[in-house]
Amino acid sequence: MFSMTLGRKKQHLGFTLIELLVVLAIIGLLAGLVGPRVLKQLGGAKSKTASVQIKDLEQGLEIFKLDVGRFPTTAEGLQALQQPVGSATGWNGPYMRTDIPEDPWGKSFMYKYPNGKNGFDLYSYGADGVAGGSGEDADISNVK
Questions:
Q1: First vs last Cα of the chain: how many Å apart?
Q2: How far is residue 29's CA from residue 76's CA, in Å, rounded to a whole number?
Q3: Which pLDDT score is estimated for 112?
Q4: pTM of the complete model beyond 0.85
Q5: Are 36 and 30 a contacting pair, CB within 8 Å?
Q6: Is 7 a residue whose pLDDT tops 80?
Q7: pLDDT, tens digit, 9 for 90 and up, residues 71-111
Q8: Own/partner pairs for 19-25, CB < 8 Å, 24+ apart?
Q9: Beta carbons within 8 Å of 109's beta carbon, 6+ residues apart
Q10: Which of 93, 88, 84 lies closest to 70, judged by CA?
């Protein structure tokens, strides 16, 4: 009996190189199809995050106006929500629970008051940091 088993080749369990290459090709195809969709969703999420941050800053500015009687000037900027400014009598802040946030692309929000329309402008220039643009580079603002 022992002599019969010695003549047979042992059967190896595992994957051949061809099988591994086929699996890698399938994974590559799936990544090529799914990857751009995932990246597009990520970009949209950053734009939505910037819109939410702008709404939070708007609320802080509105409360500042209730206490002080005016919005901070462009020169005073958004920092007036965290620290009292010299000409702001009635300041009762800070008006934000956290530090003034940067936009999702790591840049400061732009603030302008007065804007000529009896209000303020609050905006981010998007991913490229330049006015205008489309898609991920589009400006996001409180102006309707």
A1: 89
A2: 53
A3: 92
A4: no
A5: no
A6: no
A7: 998 999 999 999 888 777 888 889 888 889 999 989 999 99
A8: none
A9: 53, 54, 57, 78, 100, 101, 102, 103, 122, 123, 124
A10: 88
- Rounded CA-CA distance 44/74 in Å is 29
Contact 67, 91 (CB under 8 A): yes
Q: Is 58 helix (H, G, I), strand (E, B) or coil?
A: helix
Tell me the pLDDT of the chain averaged across its residues: 82
- What is the number of other CB atoms lying within 10 angstroms of the CB of residue 84? 14
Q: What is the pLDDT of residues 21-37, one digit of tens each?
A: 888 888 888 888 777 77
Instruction: Report the SS3 class of residue 40.
Output: helix
Torsion angle in degrees (nearest 10) through CA of 3, 7, 13, 16: 170
**Sequence letter at residue 30:** L
How far is C-alpha 135 from the geometric centre of its chain's CA atoms?
A: 13
